[in-house]
Automatic annotation (TrEMBL):
The keyword Cytoplasm applies. It holds the Pfam family UreF. The keyword Chaperone applies. This is Urease accessory protein UreF. One of its GO terms (molecular function) is nickel cation binding. Belongs to the UreF family. It comes from Kitasatospora phosalacinea.
């Protein structure tokens, strides 16, 4: 019986489903972890990022009509080959206990960030995610990764931290990378709202329209190797460089 509500039911120590702990999370538990780690309210600082969109807006290089195409391009050629691929590699390395491979993945991802603001955004959100995941999820993988970051053997990028956190919680790699890509899309569209490039109703249309591209991006990320890590979005990089030197800006990237 609950002391607070008086209701009958299982205690915190009792799981009526009989599911195992994080190392063998069932489907529902894995879903709950994904929802928590990719929630817009998760305090990693993701809401401070526009993922380059503010730079496009400042240059008047994006409109409400071209917003979906820009999101699709960033997924296919930027986030997919870089962050999504790094998340997959980090998840597998953490699961296998290959800590040097994990550190190398993190270093390579960091090296693909051509602008200072992108590197700073990746490590700030990544280290915050790592700290919270250590407290809320725990486990050897997160502790070993934190030690690598503390020793400056790994920079602590967000995608790598997310891969390790999902692995520590027993979330399958495909589900983990899909969730993180959706979080990117949601954050991107949220930035578009704040930049007045869309409204709340159209934002949902854009999100749903991105689903096939997310599926395509996930499938590609799952088969890439470490040598394939890195996107190619030169215009987005140029916009980010311009944004970094803007006199006024709403987002840190």
């Amino acid at each position: 019986m609950s002391v607070l509500s008086g209701a009958e039911g299982p205690t915190d120590a009792e799981d009526p489903s009989g599911a195992e702990g994080p190392s063998g999370a069932d489907g529902l538990d894995a879903l709950l972890v994904c929802l928590q780690l990719t929630d817009s309210a998760f305090p990693s600082g993701f809401y401070t990022l526009s993922h380059g969109l503010e730079g496009y807006a400042q240059a008047k290089a994006v409109t409400p009509d071209t917003l979906p195409a820009l999101l699709a391009d960033l997924l296919r050629h930027g986030v997919g080959p870089s962050d999504a691929t790094a998340l997959v590699l980090a998840h597998r390395a953490a699961t296998a206990g290959e800590w040097e491979l994990l550190a190398e993945t993190d270093r390579r991802l960091h090296a693909t960030r051509l602008n200072r603001e992108l590197r700073l955004a990746a490590t700030r959100t990544g280290r915050q995610l790592l700290d919270i995941a250590r407290e809320s999820i725990g486990g050897e993988a997160l502790e070993r990764y934190a030690a690598l970051v503390a020793a400056k053997r790994a920079p602590g990028c967000q995608a790598v931290a997310a891969g390790v956190a999902h692995a520590a919680a027993g979330v399958p790699v495909e589900q983990a990378v899909t969730s993180d890509l959706f979080a990117f899309c949601s954050s991107f569209v949220g930035a578009a709202l704040r930049l007045r490039l869309t409204d709340h109703r159209r934002a949902q249309v854009v999100l749903r329209a991105a689903a096939p591209v997310v599926r395509e991006t996930v499938a590609a990320a799952l088969v890439r190797e470490l040598a394939d890590l890195g996107g190619c979005v030169p215009v987005a990089d140029a916009m980010s460089g311009r944004h970094e030197r803007a006199e006024a800006r709403l987002f840190m990237s």
